[in-house]
Description:
Blueprint: H1 3-22, H2 24-52, H3 59-78, H4 80-109, H5 117-135, H6 137-170
Helix pairs in contact: 1-2, 1-6, 2-3, 2-4, 2-6, 3-4, 4-5, 5-6
Amino acid sequence: MTWWLLTLRGLLAILFGLLALFWPGITVLALVLMFGFFALVEGIFRLVAAFGRAGRESRWLLVLGGVVGIAIGLITLFWPGITAIVLLVLIAVWAILTGLFEIIAAVALRREISNVWLLALAGAFSFVFGIFMIALPRQGAIAVVWLIGIYAIVFGIAMVVFSLRFRGLVYGTGTRSTRV
C-alpha cells in the first residue's frame, strides 16, 4: 500500500463529494448510469461463468442471475429516470419501515432501557424522511445525494489525513505509534 494512492483516493472522494453537493442532478444521473453499467457487466460475467464452468450443479442459477443482471442493466441505461424513481421509492419504503420498527422497539424497551426516547426519535426521523421522499421525490433524491456528498467529503478528509500519517511512518518522519 502506498501513501500517495491513499491520498489520491481521499482527494477523489472529496472531489466527488463536492460535485454531489454542487450538482446533485448530474450526480443522481451518474449514479444511476454507473449502476446500469455495473448490472450489465456483472450479468455478462455471470453468463460467462455459467458456460465456462465444468460442473452443472448451479449453472442455471448463474444463467438466471446473468439474464436478470443484463435486463436490469439495459432497463437502467435506456430508462434512467424510472430507475432513479424506483431506487428512491425503495429507500423511502426502507426508511419508513425502519422508522416504524425503531418506534415499536422503543415502546417495547421503555421499561428496560433508559433514554429509549432517542431510539424513538431516530425512528421518527427515519419515518418522516421516508414520507418526505415519497411526497417530494425530486427533493428526496437531492437530499440523498447531499448525504452521499457529505459522506464522501468526510471519508476523503479522513483518508488524506491517514495517508499523510502513513507516509510519515513509511519515510520515518513520524513516530511509530498505534495511533496511525
